[in-house]
Amino acid sequence: MMKHIPILLLIGFSLSLCNLANKLHGKKSGSGGSDSSSSPSDAGGAVAERAQPSAAQTAALAGGQEIKWDQQGISFTVPAKWVESSSDSKTFAWRSPGGFEAANLIVSVSLMDESFPTDVSIKAFYDGAKSRAKNGEVDELKWVEIDGLKGVQFRESNPEKPDDFRRLHWMAYRKYAGQVQLLNLMLSTTGKGFTQHQDAMYGVLYSAKIIH
């Protein structure tokens, strides 16, 4: 049971971050509606780089396995020894071997109504991460396109306490199965374990295949 506590904490964090999007609904501009929701990657015209794993990130997945979240039409390649932690209609989690210092993949989906202002919301997530970067809490921030879907990627700075979590996020909106969804793809481990796992975590993130 103890080995599942980090996963439960991270899932809770991931879901709380996704739920912030609902609070932006009242800030919707006059350009809302299904057209905005079906093309959420515009994000005010910001230019995104295409996800391109480095040689080390690709090597970290050598001999790995393809995993599928069939309920949401999303798949990844993960290292061979990673195992599933949980899976339901809203969350999907896998992890590497190890205890508290293991690497984790946690994917969460939040549903929005048809008129939700996705462009406003994703820009707010970017601006929020930018503010955190100014405060030293985030050390990487950029727009990244993964499998043709544009989103915000940000990495938290190394924590003061080496046993605290350090997280890599990629967040985007898509329209899937008639629903407007916020996707939050999160890779995490402890601060002291980040260097060990970072190539695999970036490799897993950039391997994502997402129906949209």
State the shape: globular
Task: Bin the strand percentage.
Answer: 25-35%
Strand order of the largest sheet: 1-7-8-9-10-6-5-4
- Nearest-integer average pLDDT: 86
* Distance, first to last CA: 36 Å
Report the major sheet.
8 strands, mixed
Q: Helix/strand/pairing class, anyone?
A: alpha+beta
**CATH superfamily descriptor:** Mog1/PsbP, alpha/beta/alpha sandwich
Number of separate strands: 11
CATH class, named Alpha Beta
- Indicate the radius of gyration in whole angstroms: 16 Å
The arrangement of helices and strands along the chain is HHEHEEEEEHEEEEHE
CATH architecture label name: 3-Layer(aba) Sandwich
The tally of structural domains comes to 1
CATH fold annotation: Protein Transport Mog1p, Chain A
| Uncertain residue segments | 1-5, 24-41
- What's the tally of helices? 5
**Helical content (DSSP H or I, runs of 4+):** 25-40%
List its salient traits.
single chain; 212 residues; alpha+beta; Protein Transport Mog1p, Chain A; eight-stranded mixed β-sheet; three-stranded antiparallel β-sheet; 5 helices; disordered N terminus
Written description of the protein model:
With 212 residues, this protein is of the alpha+beta class. The chain has a single domain (2-210), classed as Protein Transport Mog1p, Chain A (3-Layer(aba) Sandwich). It has five helices and eleven strands, in the order ααβαβββββαββββαβ. It has helices at residues 5-19, 34-38, 55-59, 118-134, 194-206; strands at 49-50, 65-69, 74-78, 83-87, 91-95, 104-112, 138-146, 149-156, 165-176, 179-190, 209-210. It has an eight-stranded mixed beta sheet with strand order 1-7-8-9-10-6-5-4, with helices on both faces. The protein has a three-stranded antiparallel beta sheet with strand order 2-3-11. A hairpin with a 2-residue loop joins β9 and β10 (179-190). The longest helix has 17 residues, at 118-134. It is globular.
